[in-house]
Amino acid sequence: MSSWTSRRSFLERALSLGVMAVSSRSLAAFAQSHPLATLSDALRLGQRLRRGELTQTQWQDQIGPIMQRVTPDELSAAIELEALRRRAAMVARGAAVVPVPQLQQLQHDDGAAIRVFFFRAGRTDPPHCHFNSVTAHRVLSGRFRVRHWDRVREEPGQFVLRATRDRTIGPGELTSISEVRDNAHWHEAITDGVLIDIEQGRLDPSIAPRHRQMIDPTARPRADGTIVARALTNAQAHRRFG
Ligand SMILES: [Fe+2]
Hints:
With 242 residues, this protein is α+β, with helices and mostly antiparallel strands. It has helices at residues 3-16, 24-32, 35-50, 56-67, 72-78, 81-87, 234-241, and strands spanning 96-99, 112-119, 124-129, 134-141, 144-155, 158-169, 174-177, 184-189, 193-200, 213-216, 226-232. The protein is 30% helix and 33% strand. A hairpin with a 2-residue loop joins strand 5 (144-155) and strand 6. 35% of the residues are buried.
């Protein structure tokens, strides 16, 4: 019996015996704290964004408090992280990325994804931009240096960026990207570590899907503070940064 089932049974039994006064509000709060309900609510936030009920920055502001309703350990148990780890390919560079199968049990829109990224210390998910999507990465274990840039504009073979964040985060902390804020990112594992990624892509379904684009953001900033980041292939990016 899962801890969710056993806790719910306990509550139902306690209520039927009349030995425990539990308001409907506290029951609702309890249900909300279940890790799969948390993932379901995170996916629902993406659906609301696609329906135009909130902006991309509102999605970024709200996804953290939703994902942080449960602890990294509770989330890891709910997605059976150790089984996913056994399924992860050994990679020489970058992170091993495994889809979270529980996505299929949850209502979600076209373009939604939940994945885990397994890192060895010193490896990075190379710097890249995203298009027509929002994503959030939460640390399940380990410590990461995370750098972000706004994507100011695209030029042939390169992007103009502006650095926005450079910080170190640990278990439970979260970062996010959108078209309009912190679009490019670079996760570097300081220790062995795991990230869970929740994405809502295809925000505008009329735009053809476009894969994330690897970039080199290491050029010196120009006088106006912007950086010219050359576009890289996946192989180039993993050789250079992975
Ligand atoms: Fe990304």
